[in-house]
Amino acid sequence: MVYNTFEVKSVQSFEDILKRVGNTPHIPLSSPNDKVELYAKLEWFNPFGSLKDRAVLWMIKDAEKKGVLKKGQTILIEPTSGNTGIAIAGIARALGYTAELVVPAKVSEETKELIRRLGALVLQTEDDLCPRVGPGTDQCIALANSIIRARPEKYVMLNQYANEANFLAHYESTGPEIWSSLKDVTHFIAGVGTGGTLTGVAAYLKKKNPNVKVIGVQPQKAHHIQGLRNLEESMAPELLRRRLDLIDEWIKISDSEAFKTVRFLAESKRLFVGPSSGAVYAAAQKVAGRLSKGKLVLIFADDGRKFWSLYSKFKVFTREEFEYYSRNARYLPENILFQEEVLRVY
Ligand SMILES: Cc1ncc(COP(=O)(O)O)c(C=O)c1O
Question: Which of 49, 65, 238, 266 is deepest in the core (most CB within 10 A)?
Fold first, then answer.
């Protein structure tokens, strides 16, 4: 197996990068109903471009506390369909570990390329987008497990689907950030992958106000929304099952609704979002339309810049439009992932 073996040039800059996890902005969005306020939390402001930076940082710090990891020796291996892979590649390297990510072949080429550029190895299987979790033919999980079995002294799996630190990341950071910035939130709406975001934020917000309603967004069966899970075709992950009672309602969004909404957000609001944010905003429109009053907070998990292959396949944008929004959309930070000089550190 071949790794990028360049030296870590400046530990200080890695530390700076990790300090930028969390504290992402909330922006107001127009609502179909003036009595209902809508806010989106822009998780692409995290240093590796998504909400998964939080879960990964918490899981690695927790494993360090438990003495499971050895700097310079441990290889972190994880089945993932995208953002977790990018976050593990970046954060593991910053903290002195190697990473190998087992991803379904359907994951976008841009995502795989980013993982490689962050110095990690990409292993591919023929799975559906989200590893299915549970019995059956989950090749991502099976391959990761068989590699660990062969070299248990070297490999560690964080296992985001059952790791309590994934829940805690959102209970201790995302939830408190939402409550302290926006106060009297009435509804929280997010997609579900492992369930870490939904249950972590739900537990915190309901502690502050038990009347807060939590709405989970699921994609259709055989979907193309990287990071999300349809719970009819794949089992609910253990992390979600532990606190399923915190979810008040589920809304299902089709791929075409999600893609139409991605385009709508770009055209009408100059917001360039990833596909799951399209699904979440589409669900929020349905909720806002039936309320007489409320303050809704939505999670926008990542931005659109790593989805050219998906958006071109489904004709969401032309190449010119995609490039235009990549450069000119509002609220796109010069994210670390897209700064060549920072990628060179890796
Ligand atoms: C792209 C993406 N990945 C993952 C998630 C959810 O992550 P998890 O349920 O694993 O916390 C979301 C949720 O909104 C998402 O949009």
Answer: 49
Q: Which ligand 1 atom sits nearest the alpha carbon of residue 196? A: 11
Q: How many CA atoms lie within 13 A of 234 on its CB side?
A: 27
pTM: predicted TM-score of the whole model, two decimal places: 0.92
Query: 276: Cβ below 6 Å to ligand 1?
Result: yes
Query: What is the CA(83)–ligand 1 centre distance, in A?
Result: 8
> What DSSP string describes 254-285?
-HHHHHHHHHHHHHHH---B-HHHHHHHHHHH
297: left (phi over 0), alpha (psi -120 to 50) or beta: beta
Ligand 1 centroid distance, CA of 314 (Å): 21
- pLDDT tens, position by position, 231-240: 998 889 999 9
Nearest of 277, 275, 278, 272 to residue 333 by alpha carbon: 272
Please indicate whether residue 193, judged by its CB atom, sits closer than 6 Å to ligand 1: yes
- Cite the DSSP H helix spans in the chain: 11-19, 52-65, 83-94, 109-117, 139-150, 164-169, 175-182, 196-208, 238-242, 255-269, 275-289, 308-313, 319-328, 340-345
196 CB less than 6 Å from ligand 1?
yes
CA distance 164 to 147: 23
Of the listed ranges 157-166, 247-256, 332-341, the one predicted with least confidence: 332-341
